[in-house]
Amino acid sequence: MSIQVARVEETRRGRALEALGPLLRAVLWGLAGFALGAFLTAVAQGEYGLTQVGVVVGYVTGLGGWLLGIGAWEAVVRPLFGLPARWDEGAGTARYLRLNTDHKVIGLQYVTTASAAFLGAGLLAMFMRAELSSSELDVFATNQDYNSAMGVHGTLMIFAVAVVAIVGGFGNYFVPLLIGAEDMVFPRLNAISYWFVPPGVIAIAASPILGGIQTGWTAYEPLGATEVPGQLLYYVGVYTLGTSSLLTGINIIATTVYMRAPGLRWSRLPMFVWAMLVTSILNVLWVPVIGAGMIMAIVDRLGATDFFGPSGLPVLWQDIFWLFGHPEVYIIMLPAFGLWLEILPVMARKTLFGYRWAVAGFLIVAFMSGIVWAHHMFVTVDDERLIPFMTTTELISIPTGFMFIAFLGTLWRGRLRLTAPLLLVVMSALNFLIGGLTGVFLADVPADLFAQDTYYVVAHFHYVILGGMVFAWIAGLYYWFPKYTGRMYSERWAKIGAWLTFAGFNLAFFPMFLVGLDGMNRRVASYPSYLEGMNVFISIAGFLLGLSFVIHVANLAYSWVRGPAAEANPWHGKTLEWQTTSPPPHENFATEPVVTADFYGYGDAGPEPDLVPVPGARRRRPVPAGRPETRE
User: What is the pLDDT of residue 128?
Assistant: First the structure.
């Protein structure tokens, strides 16, 4: 018996090592690449130790080693030289720990990595709120430590969560399913695009080792060029994450244009696919801008140039950053709008209202997003730019309202099933509405000059990003949970988590409008003592908010392993992802789907089944009128 047990244990260890092999190799090759690059740089400079140039060169060579080690050598480089691609993409859990070309695996890789970054950045936010419970510095040792935590928090939340979670996660997993494709157009490029994300996250998270990010997530120059070396890890980390977004955007555009199923005309395209397409166009247009800014800042810092220094143009950094930064707001929010309009008709059992108006809103917002950036710079730009950018900033709210019209028109008199996904979508819309209304004042020059750099801006920003995008992201996690796991989550705990998240969020961030208008500046660890009472209340609400996310994570994680088996189409949706098994097979569909009608024609009459499946119950699957046919 002992021999058999030993053999079983040996087999388990062998399988674990086989599963972790590519990841361990990637880590070793990455570390070796970093060491080699830093060493060669030191030799070339004639200096001992790790210099700033060595950090940059070492990161680049380390990134190359990481990508080759995770599988790019066998799967990508060898075929370029006419050699066979000798790469095992693995099975089971091993698929997620190596280079894999299945878009569904890649989507879940993005989702889990973004979730980990969200939890890590959220933990930093808890420490920051603990610090701000007192008007004096008492949790962090120095102001620089607080600044570093704030910089890492903001940078991860924006570039590793808000930009990546929906586009990289849901975009990769569901765009091919929603359009009836087997995979992305460029599967190997898609596989590589994800593996840029972990090094980018690690670089930003490791910045405190070199002094941290003292400039906040916006990294304004010339402060960034004179601060501690940790700023370099900000530049290379953001550049790496941006590369991932750029490659994903290229793939989504090409896949949407060339891989749609027969009958899937542009006028029938699902709303989430429209959102992904327009967002990807924005990524392709504007990510290179911020990438160029990061390169310019790096060479400035290394002393080769002076783009943003005293003899250059310090305000140029703000123009470059926000020329990307405001389209980035829509890179973050357009996917959330797509989730609203994808989930709502299914849960309301009502035809989507204003389909063409919503699509027009996506397209007009995408166009106008590039002509509003200077409203972030009202305190620094010349007077000649104030009125034009104030005007365009206020005008962009009109096409944004098209999505709200479609949302409200579909919600009105719908036969609502208040499932957790719908509840979170409604909460997302309410939060974004507050963020939008308070943003009108920041678009107005006199009001913006008064509120600039106060907690009013912090509250507005979080109502848009956390209140709008993150709530929609969690709604999508629940809505598509049966599809990517084959199991059902606990509806009860999902609703408890949703209400706690909504209460904690609004109790924490709405008072920030008040303390901001009362004189509390953002990005500082100490503040006037008369604001301490309100900040204690905000911190307690913030801890409640943090607890609510733990509930969501626990519910999803437990249900993924122990949840009851789900039907292939538990919500009775008409879009293509629900017309295959849950989870889908490798090729997505047994036969090529042919779309014969629009996906949102739910009608206004007739009984509808309960949308929350009861574990173990047997129910007849309805055949919707617009369901696609199949052909051999």
Answer: 96
CB distance 202 to 280 below 8 Å: no
Which residues fall within 8 angstroms of residue 353, CB to CB, at 6 or more apart? 405, 406, 408, 409, 410, 412
Q: Tell me the whole-structure pTM to 2 decimals.
A: 0.92
Question: 630 has which bridge partners?
Answer: 593
Q: If pLDDT is split at 50, 70 and 90, which confidence band does 6 have?
A: low
Pairing status of strand 592-594 against strand 629-631: antiparallel
Q: Specify whether the CB–CB gap between 517 and 454 falls below 8 A.
A: yes
Residue for token digits 């586009």? 167
What does each C-alpha distance from 421 to 351, 430, 473, 567 come to in angstroms?
Answer: 18, 14, 10, 17
Interhelix angle 386-395/420-443, rounded to 10 degrees, is: 160
pLDDT at 153 over 70: yes
Q: What is the pLDDT of residues 59-80, one digit of tens each?
A: 999 999 999 999 999 998 988 8
Q: How far apart are CA 105 and CA 369, in angstroms?
A: 32
The CA-based dihedral angle spanning residues 75, 79, 85, 87, taken in that order and rounded to the nearest 10 degrees = -10
Residue 438 · residue 513 · CB < 8 Å:
yes
Cα separation, 527 vs 539, in Å, equals 14
Mean pLDDT across 549-572: 95
Spell out the residues 6+ positions from residue 26 whose beta carbon is closer than 8 angstroms to its own. Answer: 65, 66, 67, 69, 70, 71, 195
Three-state DSSP class for residue 559: helix
Q: Which amino acid is at 446?
A: P
In degrees and rounded to multiples of 5, residue 278 shows phi and psi of -65, -40
Nearby residues of 471 by Cβ (< 8 Å), 6 or more positions away: 336, 424, 425, 427, 428, 431, 501, 502, 505
What are the φ/ψ torsions at residue 467 (nearest 5 degrees)? Answer: -70, -35
Q: Please, which residues have CB within 8 angstroms of residue 205's CB and are 6 or more apart in sequence?
A: 120, 152, 156
CA–CA separation, 565 vs 552, rounded Å? 19
**What are the tokens at 333?**
């929010």
C-alpha span between 497 and 183 (Å, rounded): 34
The token pair that represents 127 in the structure block: 């420490």
